[in-house]
Amino acid sequence: MLLKIEKRPEPARSMVYVTPLLALLLTILTSMALFTFLGVNPLEALENFFILPVNNQYGATELIVKATPLILCAIGLSVGFRANVWNIGAEGQLTLGAIFGGGVFVYFHDVDSVFLLPIMILMGAIGGALWAAIPAFLKTRFNANEILTSLMLVYVAILILSLLVHGPWRDPDGFNFPESRTFSESATMPILMEGTRLHMGTILALLAVFGTWIMLSKSLIGFQVKVIGAAPKAGSYAGFSQKKIIWFCLLFGGAMAGLAGVSEVSGPVGQLLPSISPGYGFTAIIVAFLGRLHPVGIILAGLLMALTYLGGETAQINLGLPVAVTGVFQGMVLFYLLACDVLVNYRFRMAGFSKVAS
Amino acid sequence: METDGAVTPRLELKGITKAYPGVLANDKIDLKILPGEIHALLGENGAGKSTLVKIIYGVLKADSGEMKWDGSPLEIANPHAARKTGIGMIFQHFSLFEAMTVTENIALGLPGRQNMADLSRRIREISENYGLPLHPERHVHTLSVGEKQRIEIVRCLLQNPKLLIMDEPTSVLTPQEAEKMFETLRRLADEGVSILYISHKLDEIKALCHKATILRGGKYITECDPTVETAKSLAEMMIGTNLTAPQHSEEADRGPVRLKVNNLSLDSTDQFGVDLNLINFEVRSGEILGIAGVAGNGQVELLEALSGEIRCQKAEDILLEQQPIGLTGPTERRGLGVAFVPEDRLGHGSVPDMSLIDNAFLSAYRQKKLLSNGLIDTRKTIDYAEEIVEKFDVRTAGISHTAGSLSGGNLQKFIVGREMLQDPKLIIIAHPTWGVDAGAAAAIHQAIIDLAAKGAAVLVVSQDLDELFAISNRMAVIAEGRLSVSRGVHEITIEEIGLLMGGTAGADVSKEFDSVA
Asked: Is A355 in CB contact (< 8 Å) with chain B?
């Protein structure tokens, strides 16, 4: 008896939805083994990871607060991934969004206007898009690999932020701490629920998800994105410009990541700091794939990945597990997902029973 | 070659049956090949020829049935075992590494380590013996298609096969190259090698084969002697109904010039591509111009230049109704009423992983106004996809299925239909009936002729000379990136076309390629 892998005649649609769950299951099993190895009761660890963080109202809203930047970044990335544009620099675009949006406040901190926040949000999106325009230009002009350029620009972006908050944008009353002024009321995202940190950025994220969904399923540009991703030659046959799609995907992804950045600094963070994101832009890559590049899937995957951040913190406090557990967990999810995806196009079959051609 | 029951067949099949989910690909098929016999396996696409051959070659296993080799039962587990038994196969599509030499390619296909010097001596020996001129040290990308095929034949002959299976070997050859290959095959047959020859070119089979087994819809129909049958009677056995030749309006009203190509030259960006060299031709309204040529002589480059996927150097290189369009892209050209059927239907003419609905939208959204207020009009797109499926008889389980799930012939009908139903002023079609069964091919040919009769200008690029002679008004030949002067189909013979396709011949022929400007 032998296990054979054979190609399916048509990709299995059901598997597209089954594999994320399968990947999650395998991740949980592996992490249980890992917890046991670390000398922690695996069931207790799982409880700390997945249940304790969200078993009250505040925890549940915190989950949404953490999921918001993940979903914003992932929805932007998902459009590019569909067109085979591999922007993995959302973290840097997020940082530039925070710089552009936060910069508006730094220069107009004494302005008390209802227009301040909308302008900050707009500038955040522009900042992210401009940062993503660099890989787009390099890709379309010199055919430079966007994976490398967008990734390297992440570190440049973080250093720019650090430079600003250590230098010109440092709070004059801040005892020399590398921080900007704390954002005023009119520069802060309105809170949606009293006593929590749930803020308007979540509404922005939901609007972005909805808008992207419409764009991908109904608009010509969305159609072009899908065609260029699935069959570039068919795209050029139909007259779709690959360069235009590369520009569009990167600018869109950058703008969404920029929005995430500004919604973080004018939301839960409340000021510009040298470090404003625990790697949301990178985790968003996992979110996009785990959500099958589909808007609804991305919301669910965003919530799950947000839970790993919260769970990691809880496990660190209650069980003394290292914070790296969060990263290991996230990595495992992506690893198993990519491995399980073989089931979409292939199936396993027991061979060796059938004796044919007598 | 007439032998009767006294001789033990080299290979005998009895009641071979193979079912796929939903289809009976082979239904109790019998086949008998004698030593030294060239046996044709004849049938339309989907008749079960490939399945049967794959069973013989050990790629597939039959569900039931019996195979005998020289009178004793035969069980073949895989192609390796088939080769050991003495069965060699030459596939329609070559599996060669372009950047390696002939010897290196052949060594890769042989079991175990090879002494290269020894191998190249044997290659030379065999190629001289059988009239298959081949230089063992040449790199494959420098060879013509005919020469590449010789590599595959030599690779088989090195293993001293007793049965040689050939799958549509002449589809890539000029008539002269094909005739050369036939000589080799006849010689092999004289030495006692059996040959199973798969083709749908009836004239060839009449000229070459001693026996023919005809399959239709997975069933064994009959065995006959092709030398006494007519091409028409063979074709009718193959498709089971009477064939009607396409109705051709000879004195079609030629309108004004629709498409004019002026000294078009273009350097290929592909390392193994072909540069276009001073191409000139025009197509009038109501006229069908056929361009013949062996694959890889600049057809791909010419088609991409005409569709706008590659921009020309000057706008005046291509004139559409006197309007220069050489620098515009595919979308603008479609907007002017041009439609295209590209050579590669999967991944070029269609997106394999997208539904037929999306694929209907792909190139027709503009002409068919499938966008409303900037959004895709799903209802209208579905209607259009259904219209194509219905009018062009596309066999599919439904238009929500992916293009990749269709059989080659049905996808071809879908793409041809999608382009034709846009009522183009000019349509450019590459290989209109490649891989399409005879019945559907006749329907597509008729549709092309009807479209021309309505006043469209039609440009057909094909390797199938029978097809071009059947539907074109004028013909030209492309060879090594140059296009011959076009001539009316009645003023040119198949031999002349063949010589032009070879691109070799003397001064007489090369004059044909001189620019007419």
From this structure: no
